[in-house]
Amino acid sequence: MTEHGTVSFTDLAPTLGSNLDRQSIANRLAAVQPYDERRWGLMSAAEMVCHVRGAFLAAMGEIESSPVIVPMPRAVLKAHALWEPIEWKHNFWTLPALKQGAPAMCTGSFEEDLAKALAEMHRFCKPDQIRVDHALFGPMSDTDWMRWGYLHTDHHLRQFGR
Q1: How far apart are CA 88 and CA 68, in angstroms?
Q2: Whole-prediction pTM
């Protein structure tokens, strides 16, 4: 709520910090099927599940994600990407460790990969979970990370019509 008592977009923005929003994303992710067709991009549904899992692992510092050069101050990019009411662009940049062919993107049993993605999402959301700086956005608050987790997962679920 703003100092004037009005509700802002950031107060209403979906985030993994909300039990309701987190359960909604978890249900949508659990509904992904290996035969779901992409609406954009190159990944298969199985690769997307591994990508989402890998992104949570990178956020927790378990997959390397070195800072990358960005075209504007990181704080400005982060504020725009996380807190403006816009959908993320299709075919946007991703970490080299999360691109097709990278070890984190090797798929196994779809059911096992999906279960691992859901487990990592829930672990990522724990209040005491350590997270590292984001490769694009730099330092992130817990609130920023929960918003990013929602947006990133939602973006890829929409990629597969979920």
Answers
A1: 18
A2: 0.91
Token code pair at residue 73: 């101050």
More confident residue, 56 or 12: 56
String of b and e for 23-40 (b: at least 16 CB within 10 Å)?
eebbeebeebeeebeeee
CATH architecture type of domain 9-159: Up-down Bundle (1.20)
pLDDT tens for residues 3-19? 655 544 556 899 999 99
Structural domain boundaries in the chain: 9-159
* Residue 124 pLDDT exceeds 70: yes
CA distances from 22 to 15, 50, 66, 157 (A): 7, 18, 27, 13
